[in-house]
Known about the structure:
Elements (H helix, E strand, L loop, with lengths): L2 H19 L1 H4 L7 H24 L3 H6 L3 H28 L1 H24 L3 H5 L1 H31 L8 H15 L1 H8 L1 H9 L12 H22 L5 H4 L4 H30 L8 H20 L8 H26 L1
Amino acid sequence: MSNPIILGIFWHFVGAASAACFYAPLKQVKNWSWETMWSLGGFFSWIILPWGISWWLLPDFWRYYGSFDMSTLLPVFLFGAMWGIGNINYGLTMRYLGMSMGIGIAIGVTLIIGTLMTPVLQGKFSILFGSAGGKMTLLGVLVAVIGVAIVSYAGLLKERALGIRAEEFNLKKGLILAVMCGIFSAGMSFAMDAAKPMHAAAQSLGINALYVALPSYVVIMGGGAIINLGFCLIRLAVCKGISLKADLSQAKPLLIANALFAILGGVMWYLQFFFYAWGHANIPADYTYISWMLHMSFYVLCGGIVGLLFKEWKAVGQKPVRMLVLGCAVIILAANIVGLGMAA
Length: 344
């Protein structure tokens, strides 16, 4: 396995670790509605950081974006909005199915859809079955889905041991939302593929290959921001029991602490895609569709590791922990299979 491929896998792991940890500071936010917290963190994640970093990278910010016509920008933006819809459905899935079942189904669906539909959109689906490397990466995807399923089952055992139930368990609603979440969340994978002309233009300006995808995030995350911020602001305006005014009327020390924790969570959420770009840049051109599979499977892997480090599995018994470790090992195996496939 070549060094660039190993680096690509490593950076995808780093990005996934940031995604798995981003909610830790958000848990420290007190006396704020989820909508206010998510809006502030998201504003930094989807607007401030993509724009700020792109402004720093690009020699002429406005000329760069003005050089593309709508036929290039619109698909990138719409796929970003698609990803934003997936983010909203993710929270609703947890409400109706619980964390473990919800994550297992949603991540499993988005892993498959985001990975396999990208070569279809590229017109390169034959690579998957027409080469030894393609077949090997397909095997890696299958093994990753099995690993996600095992980790999700371990989480289900954990929830049962701790007596945790979904807020409003509804299998029918939850399954529909989980599948929708999985499909729409794959919009990020599609957006990255649609943004290739933007990546090439950034590279032609002399931007390092590790950073060429970052300017496209202004458009991708702009689509996601409109969906997420619009959803939150509408809820703050119309839903009883929550209001922006009430959230901002807290004591000044608490207000400052809440803002800093929300912003930190948003920064960590953005960093997953910052390092996703680094991982993506090191993946061979014929196998860039594998980036999404690596990111999502490592997200589940890192979530399990974080749970163990924070002693969330301390009182659940040996079987759930054994299943978690097994699932994590299977995901690591999947990453190695995919790496060998790309190197073939």
